[in-house]
């Protein structure tokens, strides 16, 4: 039985972080680019504290700047802004509320609509029990139960 328990905890250890926090690739396969409707992309998606936003683009083509609401509307970055420029930029969503991101290269934001606005929820997975995470946990436990029965 010891090995079964080990497998059980190993699977839990692997699954737990991925259940609690997700990595969200901005724009999915399109990545971070011009002429993409990020408004439509973000619609219906859930962003929660603990999640990570990943902005993917060919390095040098774009960048990522966190702005406020008016910066988003006007495509203007604050003077002290530090753009992310690696092409694989990860932003940890550490607080709830509205977040805005723009590309500061050329006129990508103004003309190319390269801007993203999201609303980050509180840690929905840990605070609201009937969530997808719970569903997955129950499913994993059920599968483990079956595996254990087969092993005995
Ligand atoms: Cu750009």
The tally of structural domains comes to: 1
CATH topology, by name, is: Immunoglobulin-like
Low-confidence stretches: none
CATH architecture assignment? Sandwich
Count every helix, treating DSSP H or I runs of 4 or more residues as helices: 5
**What would the average pLDDT be, to the nearest integer?**
86
- Roughly how many Å apart are the termini? 8 Å
Proportion in β-strands: 15-25%
CATH superfamily: Cupredoxins -  blue copper proteins
Helix-strand makeup class: alpha/beta
Strands in their spatial order, largest beta sheet: 2-7-6-4
Bound molecules: copper (II) ion
Instruction: Summarize the main sheet.
Output: 4 strands, mixed
Residues in helix, %: 25-40%
Task: Describe the model.
- Helix 1 runs antiparallel to helix 5.
- 36% of the residues lie in helices and 20% in strands.
- With 152 residues, the chain is of the alpha/beta class.
- The protein has one domain (21-136): Sandwich (Immunoglobulin-like), CATH 2.60.40.420.
- The mean pLDDT is 86.
- The protein has a four-stranded mixed β-sheet with strand order 2-7-6-4. Strands 1-3-5 form a three-stranded mixed β-sheet, with no helix packed on it.
- Residues 34, 62, 103, 105, 108, 114 line the site of copper (II) ion (CU).
- Copper (II) ion is lined by residues 34, 62, 103, 105, 108, 114.
- Residues 1-21 form the signal peptide.
- It is found in: Membrane.
- Residues 22-122 form the Phytocyanin domain.
- Keywords: Copper, Disulfide bond, Electron transport, Glycoprotein, Membrane, Metal-binding, Signal, Transmembrane, Transmembrane helix, Transport.
């Amino acid at each position: 039985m010891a090995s079964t328990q080990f497998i059980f905890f190993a699977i839990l250890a692997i699954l737990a972080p991925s259940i609690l926090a997700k990595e969200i690739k901005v724009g999915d396969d399109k990545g971070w680019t011009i002429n993409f409707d990020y408004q439509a992309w973000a619609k219906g998606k859930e962003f929660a504290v603990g999640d990570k936003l990943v902005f993917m683009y060919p390095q040098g083509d774009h960048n990522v700047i966190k702005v406020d609401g008016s910066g988003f509307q006007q495509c203007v970055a604050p003077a002290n802004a530090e753009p992310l420029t690696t092409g694989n930029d990860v932003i940890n969503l550490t607080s709830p509320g509205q977040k805005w991101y723009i590309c500061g290269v050329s006129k990508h934001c103004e003309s190319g609509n390269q801007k993203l606005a999201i609303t980050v929820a509180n840690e929905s997975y840990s605070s609201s029990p009937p969530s997808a995470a719970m569903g997955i946990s129950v499913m994993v436990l059920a599968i483990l139960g079956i595996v254990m029965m087969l092993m005995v």
